[in-house]
């Protein structure tokens, strides 16, 4: 569990961010409020998703789910000011940590040249309890940390240079959304409503959850208030920050 230390303010002296997560809805369950604030400030944020979320709705065939969830993710991103959403087409539910995943993420980093990389919580558990984090999240998070270094080294994945993707060593921080070891936060007082609206765009996914607690987007308000206890009492979005 996270300690009770006060959360520091996330760095703001950057212009471009790349968010790399496993599934549609991952950002909406953690970082969308911060993304909305950043895009309002004129910063550029791009979303790259490892999968199309095809295994995420029990009552819907994967082929149909992939189409629906891609559409919902693009709509959700638009709510918080993100226009570019990419899908890497790894298999939902069985993402493997390894060179193919690292190479695809390194390519995205070289393509978009971010200063800040936002990623999935890679820890074994979630904040506030012993709930196990799924392998897709852990594997994408770890691969993202490694891909930041891969993207900076011209002798790793040399075929990327043949594709016109020159090395990029300009990543200054990696920030993990919803980590149980959060260190920093963003005040989302003015964008919390947008975060809720962004999650609501995942209508088919939320309907598929039935009466589960995370099917009601309003729970984001409680999570933001809880994070704010360690951040001056304002609604907040937490991150574990890794300087690079």
From TrEMBL:
GO biological process: glycoside metabolic process
Matching Pfam families: PIG-L (PF02585)
UniProt keywords, alphabetically: Zinc
Lineage: superkingdom: Bacteria
Keyword Zinc among UniProt keywords: yes
Full protein name: LmbE family N-acetylglucosaminyl deacetylase
Provenance organism: Prauserella sediminis
InterPro entries assigned: GlcNAc_PI_deacetylase-related (IPR003737), LmbE-like_dom_sf (IPR024078)
Gene Ontology molecular function, alphabetical: hydrolase activity, acting on carbon-nitrogen (but not peptide) bonds, in linear amides
Keyword Transcription: no
């Amino acid at each position: 569990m996270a300690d009770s230390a006060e959360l520091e303010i996330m760095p703001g002296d950057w212009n471009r961010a790349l968010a790399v997560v496993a599934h549609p809805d991952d950002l909406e369950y953690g970082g969308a409020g911060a993304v909305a604030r950043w895009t309002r400030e004129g910063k550029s944020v791009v979303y790259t998703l490892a999968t199309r979320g095809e295994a995420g709705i029990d009552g819907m065939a994967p082929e149909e789910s992939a189409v629906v969830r891609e559409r919902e993710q693009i709509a959700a991103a638009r709510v918080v000011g993100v226009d570019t959403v990419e899908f890497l087409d790894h298999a939902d539910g069985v993402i493997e940590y390894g060179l193919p995943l690292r190479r695809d993420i390194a390519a995205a980093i070289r393509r978009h040249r971010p200063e800040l990389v936002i990623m999935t919580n890679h820890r074994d558990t979630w904040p506030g309890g012993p709930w196990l984090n799924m392998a897709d999240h852990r594997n994408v998070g770890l691969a993202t940390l490694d891909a930041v270094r891969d993207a900076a080294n011209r002798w790793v994945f040399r075929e990327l240079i043949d594709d016109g993707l020159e090395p990029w060593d300009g990543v200054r921080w990696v920030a993990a959304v919803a980590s149980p070891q959060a260190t920093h936060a963003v005040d989302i007082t003015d964008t919390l409503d947008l975060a809720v609206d962004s999650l609501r765009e995942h209508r088919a996914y939320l309907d598929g959850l039935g009466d589960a607690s995370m099917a009601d987007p309003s729970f984001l308000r409680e999570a933001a208030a809880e994070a704010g206890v360690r951040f001056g009492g304002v609604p907040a979005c937490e991150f574990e920050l890794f300087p690079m």
